[in-house]
Amino acid sequence: MFSIMVQTTDYQLLADNIKRWGKELGFQQVGITDIDLSQHQAALQSWLDKNFHGDMDYMQRHGMLRTRPDELHPGSVRAISVRMDYLPKGAAFARVLKNSRLGYVSRYALGRDYHKLMRKRLKQLGEKIKAEFSETDFRPFVDSAPILERPLAEKAGLGWTGKHTLLLDSKDGSWFFLGELLINLPLPTDTPQAEQCGKCTACMTICPTQAIVEPYLLDARRCISYLTIELKGPIPEEFRKPMGNRIYGCDDCQLICPWNRYASPTDEKDFHPRSVLHAPDLIELWNWTETEFLKHTEGSPIRRIGHQRWLRNIAVALGNAPASEEVVQALLQRNQQVSELIQEHIDWALQEQKRKLQQDDQPSQQIKRLVRVIEKGLPRDA
Fold it and tell me: Can you give the residue ranges of the 4Fe-4S ferredoxin-type domain (predicted)?
């Protein structure tokens, strides 16, 4: 009996140390939970059956493995869930979103890619634990394997799942990344936070494409983050206007959330905005060569979508920009010199520019000339 009590006390002390070490490594919150996610299987299967994952085949491919963390790292009995804040100082949300000549990049992607940074620090945390308890076996995860991160973080007390399906904390909102360390030690677990969305549906109402089809249920195929990042083919026409000037991701559901009034800007230098992405001129981005794109997005999560999808997204934003000769000429410079994917979006953007110009009841000669220029650049059947 005495030895069992000593061991229990040791695990509690270790858990306290883990949370202290985690904060020393730059994590704003650390929680511990068991790894039983069986209660999420039915909801996950229903979401997949509705095809709400769209082109994200990996969601279907791994199926229920996401609810069985012990199969990802056999012997694991706990998950240490961590949070790292990323809200940049001077985020300039409104200034960029309201100026349709600028491109809006989701605030999480303004700095360096978080995956390697967080995974390295999680590994360091695991090594600290192993130095204390030599029998420790661990594996870090940061979007690197099929695992339900948010349910684990929720069980670990890092927040509750909001109606937009993101994790919310009552003190710090939702501007943070998540990571996990699966571990074989039976550490004491933390208490989940109570759900505190109440009757608020602001995130559902503001969503430009109405992707939150009901509370806590997201149809990813309608989400601008999915459309601009995950979707490999053409963006469906019904979503192009609602995209506005959002060229990589979307933050609207977080921006409107009352709990984000309490969010604090990050001190993590790697997450500070790059000037070329913070409030960029759309035409400047449009004119980047592939070499320039790779240079400016080195170490950024944006790079993974590639130059083609980058141009596809910007073409839509240019179509949504105010009608101007500058925009039309920029689109025409790449006209008929690009892939079929980009060309489709150039044609749409030119049609949008033409439509806006023709709204003038008494068009000037300059507008008439610009309309003719557009018509020459469009396919004959357009």
Answer: 188-216
The residues near 44 (Cβ < 8 Å, ≥ 6 apart) are: 64, 66, 67, 148
DSSP bridge pairs for 182: 79, 139
197 annotated to a ligand binding site = yes
Round to whole Å and give the CA distance between 98 and 329.
23
Do 169 and 261 meet the contact criterion of CB atoms below 8 Å apart?
no
Quote the pLDDT of residue 380.
Answer: 66
Is 148 annotated in a binding site? The answer is no
pLDDT, residue 382, reads 57
Per the listing, tokens 């990042």 go with: 229
85 assigned to active site:
no
Contact 322, 356 (CB under 8 A): yes
CA-closest candidate to residue 70, choices 124, 145, 155: 145
Active-site hit among 70, 137, 143, 270: 143
- Nearest Cα to Cα of residue 33 among 73, 85, 71, 69: 69
> Would you say 328 and 360 are in contact if contact means Cβ atoms under 8 Å apart?
no
Q: Scanning the structure block, which residue is given the tokens 């804040």? A: 85
What pLDDT shows up at residue 3?
Answer: 38
Asked if residue 232 belongs to a known ligand binding site, the reply is yes
Q: Name the residue type at position 156.
A: A
Nearest Cα to Cα of residue 307 among 349, 347, 350, 248:
248
Q: What are the boundaries of each domain within the chain?
A: 2-200+225-230+247-272
Mean pLDDT for back-to-back runs of 10 residues, the chain (382 residues):
45 96 98 97 95 92 90 96 94 94 97 96 98 94 93 98 97 96 97 96 98 98 98 98 98 97 93 94 98 97 97 98 97 95 98 94 89 89 58
Amino acid at position 131, single letter: A
| Confidence (pLDDT) at 60 | 85
pTM of the model: 0.94
d(CA 370, CA 353): 10
